[in-house]
Structure formats: C-alpha cells, structure tokens
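Page 47, continued from p. 46.
Same chain as before, 351 aa.
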Amino acid sequence: MRILVATDAWHPQVNGVVRTLTSLARSSAELGADIEFLTPDGFPSIGVPTYPGLRMALPNRREIARRIEQAAPDAIHIATEGPIGWAVRGYCRRNKLAFTTSYTTRFPEYVSVRTGIPDSVGYAVLRRFHAAASMTMVATDSLRQELSERGFRKLGFWTRGVDTRLFNPDQPASLDLPRPIFMTMGRVAVEKNLDAFLSLDLPGSKVVVGDGPQKAALQQKYPGAVFLGEKKGQDLTSHLAAADVFVFPSLTDTFGVVQLEALACGTPVAAFPVTGPKDVIADHPIGAIDNDLCSACLRALTMSRTTCRNFALERSWENSARQFIGNLATLQPSRAPRPARRVAGRTAVPN
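Result:
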C-alpha cells in the first residue's frame, strides 16, 4: 500500500508529531507499506506570531495537486490541521477522494493560552475540518471520549509507540547534580505548563531539556533550575536515563510520546491526571498522577525502574504502525485521479 501523509509539522522541528510520523514511516516499511510525506518543504512560509521561531507554510493549490498526483497514493492521511492539512483536505474534497485525519495537538487550548480566544471557537473549526474525513484517529480512549462529547464523529484508535532500541537505560549521562534529579523534556513554551514543575518545592535538582520561546524568561525566574538545551539521539537517551523522575506537567498534550521514551529509559513519570498521562500511566506502577504534582513526583521516586522498562518494551512502533495501516485498509482507499509515474524528489525520512 502506498500512503501519502500530509503534515505541517516536519523536520527540523523537534516535537511529538514529527517523532511519531518519522517512526511510523520506518515501522510501516517493515510491514510492506510505503509512506511518503507532503510537507512544508519547498513552499514559501511566514513566521507565526504566537509561536516564536516557528514558520507556517503557504501552499498553493496547483503544487499541492502536483505532489499528490505524483505520489499516486492508495490512501491519504492528513496529520495536522495547518495550511498543508487544509490544502490537502480541499484537494480531496474537490476530487471526491477518501482520506483520514488524526487529532494530535490541542490547538484550541494552545491558541486560547496565547491569545485569549475561547477554545470553543477552535473546536468549532476543528470539528468542521475532521468531519470530512472517513476516520479521525486518536491516541487514547480518554481523548476519544472527550472529542465525542465535543461533537466529533467517526473516531478511530491509533496508539503510539517507542523505539526501545534507541531509548534504553544502558548509558546514563554523568550529571554532577544533587539527587534526586527531576527532569522534564520538550519545547520550552507556555503551553507546556513548565511553571507548574519549576515552582515546586522538591529535594535535589530540577532539570529542563529542550529549547523554545519561554526559555530565557524561565531561566531568569527560576535560577535554581538547570537548563540543558536541546538534546537529540543518544545524548537525549542518556539524559533521560540519568533522571530519577521524569516530570510531565503539560495539561494540553493529547498523548505525550516522551512519557514512553522516559519509561523506556527506566525513568518513572510524574504528571497531572489529564488525557495522556491517565492513559499511559493509569494504575500501572510506572509513575504517579496527581493534582498535587509535588506529591506525584515524590511517589514516582519509589517506582521500580525495571518495571518502567518492561512496560515500554510492550509498546513498540511496529504495533502502532500495524494499527495505523489497518485503519486505512478498512476504509475505501484513496485513488489519485491522474496517477503519475513516480519520480525522484520524494521527501525522505531522515535517519
């Protein structure tokens, strides 16, 4: 099966959507599915005022059509609701092609936090976007229930996985910091709710791995915290493995792949009882969820690192990819109206 995935989030961005799609492509190839990506690459772009450092693609209808017809996919999946996603949705609607979507980011809450626009406005827009899809895939049962209550229909399930070969506890970084080490990782931005973590009265050290527009302000506000900047690959793995507890303070993520990455490194998780942590941690002895995040952090210290690792080993990207492909195979496949000879220039998945 040839699958075209349209996404506004792509390299060099470092976030859960990009990591999920990259891992999906690699695992799908092993299952006999060929995934190509229609990304912002090659389109002009503008800055996003509410997301410093990020840029938004400005796709045009003709080029979107050319790329879809060049790929000649059997199925089309739209991963994001940005300009690329809307443009591909429009193409499919005009040509009466079936397509699927996924709900991966809480844009209504993100926009509300940054602009004050009520999240009800954002959800109205997203309901319209996803209503045209044959299926909207979500990562957790609690998110499926929440979206159903908000009027979303045709919801399907697509869980997430973790690369347990890359993320492992074998080579922890040597961090010369007082123990215990409470660590968080991700984009340093207001929607990640890092204040809730950094303001806690915890023993040992608080460490932030990542970069983003709020970093300078948080460094000034919390001089006792350690900000290590962005880490990738084995360097990231080593730091996650060196932590005693991984703290996930976000209230707006739909899943939080980084939770599984920390668990694969043997590091228990502390989080609020919201969508994502409730589904990943639940009542498993791999972390603690509590409205009192400080209490959750201290309880997580008691969890077995071996249990955390074993939990992650059962959640592979191969199983995630098999579920994704199965969702597409169940539906009527898309067919490009003018299949074209496949040519060089396709978007490659970085190593």
